Amino acid sequence: MSEPPTHPPERSARAAEAATRWVLPVATVVLFVATARGYGIFRDELYYLACGRHLAWGYVDQPPLVAWMAALASRLIGHSLVGLRAFPAVAFGATVLLVGDTARALGGGRWARVLAQLLAATAPVYLALFSYFSMNSFDVLIWAGLVRLAVAILGGGDRRLWLAFGALAGLGLETKLDVGLLGAGIALGLLLAGRFDELRSRWLWLGGAIAAVLFLPHVVWQAAHGWPTREFVAHAQAGKITVLGPLDFLGAQAMQVGPVAAACALLGLGWLLLAGAARPWRALAWAALTVTAVFAFSVSKPYYLAPLYVLLFAAAAVALEGWTGGRFARPARAVAVLLVLSILFAAPLAKPLLAEDAYVRYAAAIGIAPGSSENHRMGRLPQFFADMHGWEALAETVGEVYRALPAADRARACVFANNYGEAGAIDWFGPALGLPPVISGHNNYWLWGPGRCDGSVVLILGGDLADHAADFATVEPGGVFHCRDCMPYEDGLTIWIGRDLKVPVATAWAGVKHFD
């Protein structure tokens, strides 16, 4: 028997629903791919690509998923920066889609979905995090998936979805450790919200077991290597990250997502915590408060809270829709207009859209000084943008020094870099320039060891002559690297030529280690 025909109004409603679900996510992907090149490759991208050439179950400063993704990207797209950044662009589109779906699952209608998507798509912190290849883009996407699953389960869905939650959480833990904080927050939230029905469910515990099994290989790797991430975090918190008090950390969120979106996030948290309609999801409010408190009262960078907004934006959209009678009423239109206006204002500050000189003029005109969440002297660009400058030129400068060496020295030479950005640049651009292998004592480069470098001829990037003279029989300058818009500590690097290391390489290697 044939099915009854679909009536035109029903088809129209379905088309409208599909349009509101997909238009903004797809537009986000297209925009981010079109603007992917930015100022050039980013310091951390170089490092993740290097990790992708040394696949393992862990690294000093992150779990392994980002390295696996880097290896996949390199295999698929080679040296294409646009291709590399297509991965976070797609992740951003998927995140925007999931935030809208979460708003619907929380009881919102069509315009709640659109507003939730708009909040996510215009948050400056997301414009920054999804504009380059890193674990942060995948981390936010995984949080969005976990929140969507949790909302479905707590809203009366099939408890077997805890198995999917556990599998995704396990994958998330192999991406970034903050996923464990979300899991702990939800567990505490279930207890505080009195959701003992869920706590008694065997599916929740089986999901937790799946997450633990998936995370176990990284734990084993950490144990086998002496828990290097613990040392890395301790050093970063002690000297690298700018310390913010709880109020300063919370105040910085207005810059992370914009004042309008920050107010909406507070509204979403209040709705989850107090609204009768949000009672099934009250546990998520307690989870949000737990995550916020942990970051606010520890040494954390403001963007660490970014993944939480996938929940708060969805809740805010539902709250606003409910207070305007389920229509796109004047308050809702005002929020949407303010979001669009704010992102037009903030986008060049979050994502490299303007030429460098134009950016400097724009930032000066609105009174924004170059900044960093780390303790560094700044140039004319903020650190996020400065770290996209100079890497290919650095490799070319080292290439000039290398080619000026006698043939016998070139055959024995290696390059020593002081940090993973410099090392990653030599790794990425060096083969085309004929450069020898690079080594470094920074983070996972130290674990990879000195390779075939025997210390007879070493090109050293930066540092002081007196320090190098204590280690080598002879040291002489080979060249100087200059860059206008990189971080100031990278500008003016002398490329030293050290010959005949005074101690065995293995002995020297123990002293160059720095995890930070």
What would your notes on this structure say?
Helices cover about 65% and strands about 5% of the residues. Strand 1, helix 23 and strand 2 form a beta-alpha-beta unit. It has a 5-stranded mixed sheet with strand order 2-1-3-5-4. It has about 525 residues and is α/β, with parallel strands linked by helices. It starts with 7 loop residues before the first helix and ends in a 5-residue tail after the last helix. The mean pLDDT is about 90. It folds into 2 domains: about 350 residues, no CATH class; about 120 residues, no CATH class. The protein contains 26 helices and 5 strands. The longest helix has 27 residues. The relative contact order is 0.11. Helix 1 runs antiparallel to helix 4 and helix 4 runs antiparallel to helix 5. The protein is globular.
Write a short abstract of this structure:
The protein contains 26 helices and 5 strands. It has 516 residues and is of the alpha/beta class.
Keywords summarizing the entry:
single chain, alpha/beta, 26 helices
Coarse shape: globular
What oligomeric state do these chains adopt? Answer: single chain
What proportion of the residues is helical, as a percent range?
Answer: 55-70%
- What is the overall pLDDT average? 92
Topology of helices and strands:
Layout: H1 8-34, H2 43-52, H3 65-77, H4 81-105, H5 110-121, H6 124-129, H7 135-154, H8 161-173, H9 178-192, H10 196-199, H11 202-224, H12 228-240, H13 246-251, H14 253-257, H15 259-274, H16 282-296, H17 309-323, H18 330-350, H19 356-365, H20 383-386, H21 391-403, H22 407-412, E1 413-417, H23 420-433, E2 438-440, H24 444-448, E3 457-461, H25 465-471, E4 472-481, E5 493-501, H26 505-511
Parallel strand pairs: 1-2, 1-3
Antiparallel strand pairs: 3-5, 4-5
